[in-house]
Amino acid sequence: MGAEAFPNNGDIEIASAASPHPLIMGLQPVALIDHVARVDWSLLDQIPGDRGGSIPIAIQELEYIVGEVKSHMLVSPDDASSLKTIAGGSVANTIRGLSANFGVSCGIIGAYGDDEQGSLFVCNMGFSGVNLSRLRRKKGPTGQCVCLVDALGNRTMRPCLSSAVKVQADELTKEDFKGSKWLVMRYGIFNIEVIKAAIRIAKQEGVCVSLDLASFEMVRNCRLSLIELLESGDIDLCFANEDEAMELLRGEQNGDPEIALEFLSKHCKWAVVTLGRNGCIAKHGKETVRIPAIGEAKATDATGAGDLFASGFLYGLVKGLSLEECCKVGACSGGSVVRSLGGEVTPENRQWMYKQMQIKGLPIPDIRNC
């Protein structure tokens, strides 16, 4: 997708996927394909583990679930498409959103397999204008995840990543980060060595680091390692949802989101806690803001809501907007993706997002063919 420059856009860089030095770089060690489907509860009763959350499964289990999806799909009158197979993963969602919806020059670091899923990941991300020059192709399978969405929009995720190819810590080089201003990452204990290596090199190159806390399960199970990472002072921006925030300070002040925000802000220049239907709270320096959610957003599928909130917030930062405005753009962006299935904003919902931004007096990106 081509892009036109913002008028008087300050430091923001608008460029095609061919740009050698993307403004924002995402690190997703394992390329991932999401199989997203709206299904009835009977299928959810058949899969491993309880409903909700994210529990790793073997490839045989994933293939079984995908095979059963067609006979359990929900088809609503206003959404004939009840199954999507697209590039997924939190970082990929954020980077794709920044590129396709806001025209920000972005790239992604990671690895994909020499299979059909790998080709699909590359095609989807490339079509969205993401620079793929730092994406390694390796022999082996690409990661996959089945995302089952019930009638109420709740998600049950079952990833298969154990045998997937990934980028290793010792493969990262300064060239991966050269010329970029931001590095976007998702916390994960299985990728902790890659994360630490990326942060070390990014800081050497003068790149700011954004970290998403991933999931309340990840925070609960790997809390000490996460706190050590935050207390290093190397994380410039941190995103957490309400559940993650409560787990972060479990046993302290009842895990109140505002207490968690204060904790994050002591170690990060920008701290954001999203509160679902209650909007978000954020802090930068001595400034704290609370922003309501977009009331006009009808939730069909919560997949990617936090990821696209991050897209909007980061767009606001590189655009030089205030903390309050960054949160408002994030709310518009996150609200746009929940209106349809999957973690990618449709052209129709992109226009809805621009309308919401216009109503709130926020700068709208000038992107060709939006």
Question: Would you kindly provide a written description of the structure presented here, covering whatever features stand out?
Answer:
The structure is a single chain. This protein has a single domain (24-360), classed as Ribokinase (UDP-N-acetylmuramoyl-L-alanine:D-glutamate ligase, 3-Layer(aba) Sandwich), CATH 3.40.1190. Helix content is 35%, strand content 20%. The chain is built from 12 helices and 13 strands.
- End-to-end C-alpha gap: 9 Å
What is the element string, with H for helices and E for strands? EEHHEHEHEEEEHEHHEHHEEEHHH
User: What is the rounded Rg?
Assistant: 19 Å
Second rung of CATH, namely the architecture: 3-Layer(aba) Sandwich
Q: What is the name of the CATH class? A: Alpha Beta
pLDDT averaged over residues: 88
> What percentage of amino acids are in beta strands?
15-25%
The global form is globular
* Tally of DSSP helical segments: 12
User: How is the largest sheet built, in terms of strand order?
Assistant: 5-4-1-8-9-10-11-12-13
Structural class: alpha/beta
Q: What count of structural domains?
A: 1
Helix content: 25-40%
Biggest sheet details = 9 strands, mixed
Low-pLDDT regions: 1-18
Could you give the count of β-strands? 13
Q: For this structure, what is the CATH homologous superfamily?
A: Ribokinase
CATH topology: UDP-N-acetylmuramoyl-L-alanine:D-glutamate ligase
Pfam families: PfkB
Family: Belongs to the carbohydrate kinase PfkB family.
InterPro entries: Carb_kinase_PfkB-like (IPR052700), PfkB_dom (IPR011611), Ribokinase-like (IPR029056)
Domain Carbohydrate kinase PfkB: 70-343
